[in-house]
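User: I need a structural model of PRC-barrel domain containing protein from Saccharopolyspora elongata for a docking pre-check later this week. Nothing fancy, just the predicted structure tokens so I can convert them on my end. Input:
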Amino acid sequence: MNVERAQDLIGTPVFDRNGDRVGRVGNVYVDDVTHQPEWVTVRIGVFGVKETFVPLAGATTEENRLDLRVSKDRVRNAPRIEAEHGHLSDQEGRDLYHYYGLDQGEPPTEAEQRL
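Assistant: Understood. Predicted structure tokens for PRC-barrel domain containing protein:
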């Protein structure tokens, strides 16, 4: 997925791997090296005031929806991270990858390549 297309995700409804609605995309975060979209924040809660980082790895998009490969509970219980100046530190990125059970060296799946 290119950056312009990723920015179009802002405000898109987000669903977990079981098809349950999680929230809406708040922001898109791009990798510093590859300049490819890597994370989105998902606004959750009644008023969408809590934002949680979720990896785009394995996510798929359809018309007006983003489907994640993680559960709603996993997103809701993710570590709270405040990205300073719109940027995740290397340690925060590693912590999130670990939390979501992703290996940073993992090659993209076919679904990721289609984004």
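Before docking, keep this in mind: The domain at 6-100 is CATH 2.30.30.240 (SH3 type barrels.).
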